[in-house]
Amino acid sequence: MPSPIISVDHANFSYVTFTKQAGFSGAWHDLFHRQKSTVAAVQDVSLHVNRGEVLGLLGANGAGKTTLIKLMTGILPINTGDVRLFTDQVPFRKRPAFLQRIGVMLSQKSQLAWDLPPLDTLVLLREIYYIPHDAFTTWLAFLTKELAVTPQLHVPVRKLSLGQRIKFELICALIHKPEILFLDEPTIGIDVSSQANIYRFLKQLNRDTQMTIILTSHNTKDIEALAQRVAVINHGHKIFDGTVTGLISRYATVPLLEIVTDTPLDPLPTHVRQVDATHYEIDATALTELPIDPRRILSVNRHNGSLDAILTQLFSEEAPTQ
């Protein structure tokens, strides 16, 4: 059996934070008696990813998922435990041969120069990664065509829409054809059409090249559209590792009926929640019979809850044990 392309074993990472008191007297006190505390961001996390997998990392703000990505990409050094990529590469050593094989897109960090067109940044990356000119031109033409941003290559970044900037950030992470792609909140703030375009492109890329993709997102549509497997991080701990369906089955407490009707219901029956004009959800535990005339129902589906509902439940609680 081939070795995992990513191996994280009992990883731990803590950072030190300082508190600042208000006012001049507080600042004077802090000068000599600064108060500090240690925050455990990642606690005893083990994770193994095979080549070609698409893994979704889920967690609330501050749960530790972005820190975990920074450990895997070498941005942060691990405190204890072990992180290795490609069997023998230690990320924090930042060896050129390792950096050549990974691509990273962090939502809060831009590679694009604000006043320059995206092409200038991409040409710079071509030189950094020693990409042959012909290969660069062919691959860039493919990426911009697939993501529908070819006309914007020569437009200053400050004049691009958010969706166009996000797509060029993705192209920057892919320009050297990495084997592993790390995406942190790749679709934050962009419209549904751009999201769908990115989903289609990433699925095609994974299918055609067996590129391994590690994805974090608060948008559950990203996870449902792309991830073959999910790992849930809560308070620094990994509390689940499996499929989206398995996650819902494990934590769902309320069975739901999804019903689509021919016309909107007016008035809305008891125990029925309207999702959109003719789409409704019903708590199946509260029913003895359907509160809707069967002649008006176009389709009925039963499931054990939505991913959004499960994550809301998990992240509002203390970290449960796996």
Query: What multimeric state do the chains show?
Result: single chain
Low-confidence stretches at least 5 residues in length (pLDDT < 50)?
Answer: none
* CATH domain topology of the largest domain: Rossmann fold
Q: What structural class do helix, strand and pairing data support?
A: alpha/beta
- Order of strands, widest sheet: 5-6-7-3-8-9
Tell me roughly what share of residues is in helical segments: 25-40%
Which architecture name of the largest domain does CATH use?
3-Layer(aba) Sandwich
Strand content of the residues, in percent? 25-35%
Q: Strand-and-helix sequence, N→C?
A: EHEEHEHEHHHEHEHEEHEEEEH
Radius of gyration, in angstroms, nearest whole number? 23 Å
Shape: globular
CATH superfamily of the largest domain: P-loop containing nucleotide triphosphate hydrolases
Distance between the termini: 26 Å
Largest sheet: 6 strands, mixed
Summed up, the domain count is: 2
Mean pLDDT across every amino acid position: 89
Number of helices: 10
| Count of beta strands | 13
Helix/strand layout:
Layout: E1 6-19, H1 23-32, E2 35-49, E3 54-58, H2 65-73, E4 80-85, H3 96-99, E5 102-106, H4 118-128, H5 133-146, H6 162-174, E6 180-184, H7 192-209, E7 212-216, H8 220-226, E8 229-234, E9 237-242, H9 244-251, E10 256-261, E11 272-276, E12 279-283, E13 297-303, H10 307-315
Parallel strand pairs: 3-7, 3-8, 5-6, 6-7
Antiparallel strand pairs: 1-2, 1-4, 8-9, 10-12, 10-13, 11-12
Protein name: ATP-binding cassette domain-containing protein
Family: Belongs to the ABC transporter superfamily.
GO molecular function, one term: ATP binding
